[in-house]
Structure formats: structure tokens, C-alpha cells
Amino acid sequence: MKLSISKQGSHLHWSGTLDIYAAGEARESLLAYLAEEAQPVLNLAEVDGCDAAGAQLLCAAVKTAALAGHPLTFAAVSPAVLEGLTGLGLALPSADATLLSRP
Fold this sequence. Notes:
The chain is of the alpha/beta class and 103 residues long. It has helices at residues 23-36, 52-67, 79-87, and strands at residues 4-8, 11-18, 41-50, 73-77, 90-91, 100-101. It is globular, with a radius of gyration of 12 Å.
């Protein structure tokens, strides 16, 4: 399913597949969103797939937001995103929403 991007209140909401085909569009929407939001929140509850490109985008988003002094938090993360991250040896701790390599 094609990635759908919408802003719901102050949250950025993605649904569909976060893959290499959607990464460019997702990146552009995310960069614009991060530039305007002091407390960015990303909702991934309806993302039904996440490949390495999607995971890379999430890692970069967390880092970009942190460097700007506005840590990115996640309202919800779908099982598909968690599975994609886990398959790459990554984790998304809920406490601070930082992507870290697993030990």
C-alpha cells in the first residue's frame, strides 16, 4: 500500500508502507514537519511495512530532531515497523524514542 502522509493536530501521521519507494516523499514531509514543530510527534500506528530505507529514515529523523533540540517522540508504532526494525537489529525504546543498535 502506498504511504499516506497527513498532519492530525500537531502529530504527523503515516499510514501504508514505509519503504524505499516512499522514503523520498516521507523524508520531505518529515523535514518540513520537523522545521515547524517544537514538539514533534510521529504516529506510525497504521504503517503496514517498513524496510531498510524506512528504518534509515526513522534513524535520521530521530537524530535530526535531537540535533535541532526538539526530540522526536512516537505516538504509536505498528507491529510492522517494530518487526522491520528488529529484523535489522534496531530497537525503538518507548522511553525516549531513540533508535539504538541492539547490543
